[in-house]
Structures are given as structure tokens and as C-alpha cells.
Amino acid sequence: MSKKYTIGVIKGDGIGPEIVDEAIKVLDAVAVVEDIIFDYKEMLMGGVAIDETGVPLPDETISGVKLCDAVLFGAIGGSKWDSLERHLRPESGLLALRKEMGTFANLRPAIVYDELINASTLKPEVLSGVDIMVVRELTGGIYFGQPREQLKDRAYNTMVYTREEVLRIAKVAFEIAMKRGKRICSVDKANVLEVSQFWRDIVEEVASDYPEVELSHMYVDNVAMQLIRDPRQFDVILTGNIFGDILSDAASMLSGSIGLLPSASTGKGVGLFEPIHGSAPDIAGQGIANPIATISSAAMMLKYALGEESAAGRIDNAIKQTLAEGYRTGDIGAYDAREVCATDEIGSIIADYASRE
Ligand code: NAD
Q1: Where exactly are the structural domains of the chain?
Q2: Could you tell me the distance, in angstroms and rounded to a whole number, from the CA of residue 15 to the centre of ligand 1?
Q3: Which of 137, 167, 170, 199 is deepest in the core (most CB within 10 A)?
Q4: Which of 258, 290, 295 to probe ligand 1 with, by most ligand atoms within 8 A of CB?
Q5: How many angstroms separate the alpha carbon of residue 191 from the centre of ligand 1?
Q6: This prediction's pTM
Q7: Of all helices (H) and strands (E), which one includes residue 107?
Q8: What pLDDT, on the 0 to 100 scale, is given for residue 50?
Q9: Which atom of ligand 1 is nearest to the CA of 19?
């Protein structure tokens, strides 16, 4: 009998709908060969939700996602909504959704596809074999800390971490490291920030339960530099919310384009799977966005949320095969391309490879 999963789908703004449609195309292709039925439930969030309901995260979306097996998400945001009050902006909807879903662990793999080694701005010899997993804390830190306020002559935010928040994200990172190269670099700014020393102390505590894992600590400014100098030194990078946000964007350029990298946000219940990039308003509606990050996020969803390893592997292989055959979107198009494809064209090629027996 076919396995059936309910997938929440939040397309969002800008290129969101274009890239999510391609991920669904690929999921549908693997569903046939893997005997899976996906029941998609589309929900609103972000600017499109503001336009239709007046708020960035409608109540129906909050209750709807909790009834799903996993949620696939595109991206939100755009200048149209930038002048709204902060709590009414699309980005506030996304932060609130992550908090509501309890998705405190954001996994962001940064891998370099051999086929695209020339697409990066860095030298191939620096990049060959790069395979990093950034484990970013997602529902705490300065993005959520209280008090926060913007006044006429000053503004402030607060970086807070509780013991429980650091413990649980550190455990996630150590469990992941055990299945990989058994090395963790915990990133902080403990030379300046109390909250970072606190983070460091708790990570050390967790490390004592994982004697096989080699733990190092590095300041965030040094990591930014080391990622560019010698990225192969990293296996798992464990870090807080704001540092992880910035470092994973930097790490994305190792792969050649921000349009390639997926993420999985997991935690207490239903997981959220999304590309690491934003809604790219500058290219929205032109059919040129790279859907690979979102398709790859769908593969992470199959693997981490649904336990469908075989289907996930099909998608990962289909992406590699597509790139190996020289199909590219514009963002990576100049490099060893046989053909520069539109968003829906490359989606169809990946779906075709993913559906082959
Ligand atoms: P962005 O990631 O949207 O775009 C940065 C650059 O990368 C742009 O030049 C864009 O064209 C390019 N790019 C991004 N994704 C691409 C893809 N799939 N294919 C090809 N090129 C791609 O970041 P930004 O410009 O700083 O932000 C735009 C909007 O997105 C803002 O409103 C921001 O708040 C929002 N945003 C949303 C998320 C999210 O939904 N998770 C994350 C970051 C930014």
C-alpha cells in the first residue's frame, strides 16, 4: 500500500512560488517510482498573506502546519511591505512561524558539487571536497531577545540564551557530528560577549557525553575568514542564530550560488524545509531563479522528516546528474554549461532524472 504524507506548502513571495512549484514537480516524480502519495496543503505566509488577510502569519497557517507531516517553504519578503511596522512585516511572520513550530535546529549543509567547482569565486583547489554542516540555533538569540526597541535617539536588541536552548542545539550538533566526520567547531564571540561564554561553557558540558567528537571553539570573525581561506577544515559548525545566519550565507558562496543550498529546520514537532536564500525580488517573475536549493530542501524533508531515504537519494542524485550533464540556471550558467535553462526547464530535467528506475 502506498505511503501517504500531508505536506504543508508555503510558497511565499518573489521567486517563492516559482521555485516551490519545481520542488513539487520533483516530489511528484519520485512519488510515482517510490509509491508515495503526497497530499499538499497550501497555506499563506509573508507578503502575500498580508495582502490577503492583513497579517503576515494567519491563524489558519499556524494551526494548519501543525497537522502536516512536514512543511515545504519558498521565501518571503519584498520592498512592497518594507515600510510596514516591524511586527506586520513578512519577516516577522517567518520568525513567528519558526517559533510556533518549535523548529530550534536549522541544518544548513554547504557542499561543493564537483561539477560546479569552477562556479565559485574561490580557487578549485581550496574547494574540492568541501562538505560542511552548519547547525544554527533558530528560535533564540538576538532575533528574539527581549527587550528590544527603536526610539528616536537610540535603539537596542538583546542577545539572550537559556541553558535549555544551548543544551538542545548542542546535542543536535553532536548527534550529527557522530554520523559525519566527528568534528565540531562551536562559533561564538566569547572574548566580548557574556552570552557567548555561557554558550561555550554549556557546549563543553555536552561534549563530555561525546568523547569521540573533537570539539574546537572559534570566534565568529575568525570563522568568517577561515571559511574563505580553508573551508575544508570544517565538518560541523555549531552556532547561534545571528552568527549562523551570516556564516551560512558566506558558506553558500563556496558552492557557487546561494540558489543551491537547502536547509532543514527541525525541533519539537513538524519540520520546516526551505532554501537558505530570500525571495530575490530582483529576479522574481522572470523564470530565471535557480530552484535547486528548494528541490534539495525537499530531499532533506524526505530524509529528515519522513524517513524516505531512498526517495531523498533519488533527488540528490538527479541534481548531481543534471549538473554533470551541463544543465545550469543563469546564476551558475557561465560555468561549463551545455545549456542555460529557465527555472521550469531545469526543474523538469531534475524531475525526469529522479523518476528513472
Ligand atoms: P536574497 O537571498 O533574496 O537575494 C540575494 C541575491 O541572491 C539576489 O541578487 C538574488 O537575485 C540572488 N538569489 C537568491 N536566490 C536565488 C536563486 N534561487 N536563484 C538565483 N539567484 C538567487 O536576499 P535579499 O536580496 O537580501 O532579500 C530579498 C528579500 O528576501 C528581503 O525582503 C528579505 O527580507 C527576504 N529574505 C527572506 C528570507 C526567507 O524567506 N527565508 C531569507 C532572506 C531574505
Answers
A1: 1-103+264-357, 131-253
A2: 9
A3: 199
A4: 258
A5: 32
A6: 0.91
A7: strand 105-111
A8: 97
A9: 18
CA angle in degrees (0–180, nearest 5) for 22-343-118: 115
CA–centroid distance, residue 323 to ligand 1 (Å): 22
Residue type, 131: D
Q: Give the H/E segment covering residue 70.
A: strand 70-75
The 10s digit of each residue's pLDDT in 284-330 is 999 999 999 999 999 999 999 999 999 999 999 999 999 999 999 99
- Total number of residues shown for the chain: 357
Binding site membership of 281 for ligand 1 (Cβ less than 6 Å): yes
For the CA of 291, the nearest atom of ligand 1: 18
Strand partners, 7: 40, 70
d(CA 189, CA 272): 28
188-226: pLDDT as tens digits: 999 999 999 999 999 999 999 999 999 999 999 999 999
Superfamily of domain 1-103+264-357: Isopropylmalate Dehydrogenase (3.40.718.10)
Assigned fold of 131-253: Rossmann fold (3.40.50)
